[in-house]
Amino acid sequence: MGLLPSPLRNPNPSPSLLLSLPLGPHQVRRLPLPPRRHRLRRRLRPPLRPIPLLRARLPPRSRRPRHLPLLLLLPLAPSHPRNLLSASADGNLCIYDAGDRFVHLKTVPVHRKGVADLAVHPSGRLALTVGRDAGIGMVNLVRGRRSFFGKLDREAKIVRYGDGSGEKFFMVREERISVHESEDARVLVEMDGGRRVLSAAVSENGLLFTGGEDRNVTAWDTTSGKVAYCIEGAHSARVKGLVVFKKRDNDHTSEASNVLASAASDGVIRVWDLRMIAIKDNSNPLAEANTKSRLTCLAGSSSNDENVSLVSPSYCRIGQMKYYILY
After folding, report:
1. pTM for the predicted model, two decimal places
2. Neighbours of 244 (CB within 10 A)
3. What is the rounded distance in angstroms from the CA atom of residue 314 to the CA atom of residue 4?
4. Where does the record place a coiled coil (predicted)?
5. Contact 137, 96 (CB under 8 A)
6. Are 70 and 24 in contact (CB under 8 A)?
């Protein structure tokens, strides 16, 4: 019994909605969060003050991206958090300086059809895109141009870089998950998810978490291609978003790194303690919130006091961003 990890501190059994903002008239499938030092500031009243990004501050109409009505993806470059990338159904990738003036720097044509997903290398120097034309593209973010394009045997829906080194990347094609070498895109291992995979997240220890139509959350060992463990019946609907939290800067004891958050299409967000699941096969969540919305993706962060904050856009008549503190 002494070897079992203790539960995380201060669980919040009834999370409350802190902020709800309109984002636009269409679906958002990826949402960025800035670095920790720019993310949240602690105050007595109110307890959390959202940053300008969470206020959904839009640039003047003349400087807004022309493909905004079909906006799908909004990742931030990891090493250059001022640079915002957007990719949409027109097949283009736009690069912005998201500072005080919100300047449009470059539009890069990548795909003939819409962009399905986008991943930025940890160095911030290049990005990978997969599109509905069954292609994969590489964009040089330093020069602002497409440097490679290739055809896939099947259309890929998800692309992710692995650990912080960026030596591997992952692709999801329906129920198939493949691990590739970043240098030459060589396939290292392939895995079968059984049913269509709709979301994926990579942890710091190299495990790949996936969720989808099977309503489970599965942890994969990307070296052997085998299932490390699985949260069966994690949700009663399709899993549309996953977030694996990272250790705080220069902190090797952060409990938030043992936390996984998952969101389902029925609007339910759940938080899990990965240590308890891996050792005890315990499928009870630490916290849960029902947003009463049709969720499309999930983003999250861990603050300095071990609280877990989540942002999730919902898909309704008008896209809405909801901001929760769940743990």
Report:
1. 0.76
2. 21
3. 37
4. none
5. no
6. no
